Amino acid sequence: MNTERRRQLSSAEERRETVLRTAIGAFAARGYFGTTTTEVAKAAGISQAYVYRLFPNKEALFTAVVERCFARVRTSLEEGAAQARGSSPEAVLDTMGDTYAHLIADKDLLLVLTHAQAAAVSETAVREAVRAGYARMVEYVRGASGAAEADVQQFFATGMLCHLLVSLDAHEVDAPWSRTLSAGIRHY
User: Fold this and answer.
1) Does the first or last residue of the chain, that is N or C, have fewer Cβ atoms within 10 Å of its Cβ?
2) How far, in Å, CA of 106 to CA of 114, rounded?
């Protein structure tokens, strides 16, 4: 019986992972407001009722997706900090920024984070998930880099600008505005 229960838990955990991976793509494509749990269930190959067994509502599913995306960002920043050529705050921030620029080349991650910021305006639970995600990232960047507050703020401001540049494929536009915004910014 214990083995059977362990197998069921494993199966539920596997399905939860499948639903989260599928939901990332669905929410990336249509956003929080445009995606239904029916669409996520169909794409994951399970019933909508089973989605609701795993997540009590769409809001909980979306916030779990947002948390997953922030965890991927954190992993990317950790990799950057570990790869830094030197321990100065500038070296660490530069390498973390480069690994992050590679990460947001994954359009699904970028889209989910962008949709989450938009939904945070009117959805309290999403706002709390986004706040918590940024709070953890800021604290990690501050601690890993040892950078001054203004440098940490600049790091995140540059990251937000990277979101915009990647979203607009600004590197494909040869115009004064795109050159101005893209100057010194890496994106892949």
Assistant:
1) N
2) 13
